[in-house]
Write a structure and sequence with these properties.
heterodimer; A: alpha/beta; Rossmann fold; Alpha-Beta Plaits; about 35% helix; B: mainly alpha; 13 helices
Chain lengths: ~350, ~240
């Protein structure tokens, strides 16, 4: 169990983290989401006792990190954002060193090291110097080092950074698997990752929590603009104008056409337009190929929440959301387990 | 305690995977050997005893200035490297205190400093072949070197906690030890006798003069012990303040 209460940190008078409170239950994965500079890393550093907070408390497995740091840190595994390992050490050597550092009993050291190395699939490089490893391997060695003393709480700052798509899938599976024995706080800027891995999401911006909940509740809360994607046979130039005339439609736009017409329409909150769209299309004699409700993605939620204060007009944020979606989307072949 | 041993072990062995260790080791043996040969030649008179010979070896000024450089180089990376690379974050989020980290690193570097002197044990053995040698002063001489070495390395550990730049740390450490060495030498110009007495503790040559003649004075042990503790305390405080920056 990890509990954070009214945590705050200011650097030279400027608040980096401002009154953050949350709780991660045993066996839960909490995703920590936010734009760069939102205060994710600062919060994590305070949780791990590396940075002293300006105000607030952190309780790790029932122990106050500030008051009893040594005992509390025994239950902590931490993968820092800027992972720095000792390049001259060999992987197994480093793991043994970490095990000794974290107070693993001597008799168990070898077994624990082997277990952690196996879990994070770094067996094949166990005898190589860390300095010779690729970024992906180094990241997994860091993860293995965070696990070696079987901590109750794991704090992972962007654990999949620098991994190739196949490794990302493996590490995600590993993290989901670790849930059984650990309480996990995970930060990331890869949005699909949060939905795939985390039980609950916490969005932070400018040092404050702006939203929290499961990805479903967040989406429901934020889907003020339910939409429909209408696909028609043939290229029909007047389709968007025609669909816009339907009562309740606030916006209709053609989004690309190659032998077919694809129109995205938006409506006021709560209105179900499917029937009206079908009637309009059949009345005009067009062939309806597809009629898909468009769900608000987590990207939309994120961009809306985070971009709100920048006072960007809606269409702009919409464009940003699409842009974001294309940049953060993980390539399809990542789902290939081989 | 286990964590302390883990840190000092890592620190000690990490010297041997960098070229620095071998450069220091070679340079040290070169200088030390040269000093030894020059002294043997200079004192190659029948009335000089071999024990006095080792005594001169222990109190040689050039040798000590060189040792100041060596100890500054040995200790410069201790904390500054960890802070620069960011590995200090992994280290300090493990269940260890700043004091343990500082002490472990200090002992690791000190062990390497002592390791440098391992080959010089040949000198008294060589002398023992050609002449009678008194083991007591030689042993206390080595004890003196170990203690003064601890002093140098602790100052270097403190300097290394102050900056992320290893070169700056080395220069700072050298300035601290050379400064106190010079104050110890030139204290005679001071008007107050009490002050001269007090500052005599800074004089490494005076300490070594005693040790090399076989005198192990508890005042000197207390002086070294308390100064080392003081520097390590400062290093710990500096690390606590600087770690996140």
């Amino acid at each position: 169990m990890l509990e954070v209460q009214n945590l705050a940190k200011s650097f030279y008078g400027a608040a980096a983290v401002d009154g953050v409170s949350f709780r991660v239950e045993d066996g839960e994965i909490l995703g920590f989401l936010g734009p760069n500079g939102a205060g994710k890393t600062t919060t994590m550093r305070m949780i791990t006792g590396f940075l002293p907070p300006t105000a607030g408390t952190v309780t790790l497995a029932g122990l106050d990190v500030l008051a009893r740091p040594l005992e509390a840190k025994r239950h902590l595994g931490y993968l820092p954002e800027t992972l720095a390992l000792y390049p001259e050490m060999r992987v197994r050597e480093y793991m043994t060193y970490r095990a000794e550092l974290c107070g693993v009993p001597r008799r168990e050291t070898k077994a624990r090291v082997d277990e952690a190395i196996g879990k994070c699939f770094v067996d094949d490089v166990a005898t190589k110097p860390i300095g010779n490893l690729s970024k992906g391997y180094r990241q997994r060695v860091g993860l293995a080092a965070a696990l070696v003393h079987k901590p109750r709480v794991l704090v992972l700052d962007e654990p999949t950074v620098g991994l190739d798509p196949r490794q990302i899938v493996k590490v995600r599976e590993l993290i989901r698997d670790l849930k059984k024995d650990h309480t996990i706080l995970l930060s990331t800027h890869i949005l699909p990752e949060v939905e795939l891995v985390c039980d609950r999401i916490l969005i932070i911006d400018k040092g404050k929590i702006v939203a929290q909940g499961t990805s479903e509740t967040l989406r429901q809360e934020m889907s003020q603009h339910p939409g429909l994607v209408v696909v028609l046979k043939g290229e029909i130039s007047e389709a968007d104008a025609a669909l816009h005339q339907i009562p309740g439609v606030t916006h209709a736009a053609r989004i690309g056409a190659a032998g077919e017409t694809r129109v995205l329409i938006e409506s006021a909150h709560g209105a179900d337009l499917r029937e009206a769209v079908f009637r309009e299309v059949t009345a005009r004699g067009w062939t309806l190929l597809e009629l898909t409700p468009r769900q608000a993605s987590l990207e939309d939620v994120f961009v809306r929440l985070v971009a709100k204060e920048e006072a960007a007009p809606e269409t702009d944020s919409e464009a940003k959301s699409r842009e974001r979606a294309t940049t953060v989307e993980v390539p399809k072949f990542t789902e290939d387990p081989s | 305690m286990k964590a302390l041993v883990a840190i000092l072990k890592r620190e000690f062995f990490s010297y041997f995977v960098s070229p620095l260790a071998y450069v220091i080791l070679t340079a040290f043996l070169l200088v030390s050997g040269t000093v030894f040969v020059l002294l043997v030649n200079a004192l190659n008179a029948p009335e000089t005893s071999s024990t006095a010979m080792m005594s001169l070896y222990f109190t040689n000024v050039f040798q000590w200035i060189f040792l100041m450089i060596v100890s500054s180089v040995i200790s410069m990376r201790l904390l500054s490297e960890e802070r620069k690379s960011g590995s200090i974050e992994s280290l300090l989020t493990a269940p260890v205190s700043e004091a343990t980290v500082v002490t472990g690193k200090f002992i690791g570097a000190w062990c390497f400093f002592l390791f440098l002197f391992l080959p010089t044990l040949v000198y008294p053995l060589l002398l023992a072949r050609v002449s009678r040698i008194d083991a007591g002063p030689v042993l206390s001489g080595y004890l003196g070197i170990a203690l003064i070495g601890a002093l140098f390395i602790s100052a270097g550990t403190f300097a290394s906690a102050l900056t992320k730049n290893q070169i700056v740390a080395a220069i700072l450490a050298f300035a601290i030890v050379l400064g106190s060495f010079l104050v110890g030498i030139f204290r005679d110009v001071l008007p107050s006798a009490n002050l001269r007495d007090a500052l005599s503790y800074l004089s490494i040559l005076e300490h070594m003069d005693d040790f090399s003649r076989g005198i192990v004075d508890t005042r000197r042990l207390v002086y070294v012990g308390s100064t080392v503790t003081f520097f390590l305390f400062l290093a710990t405080r500096a690390l606590e303040v600087n770690k996140g920056k």
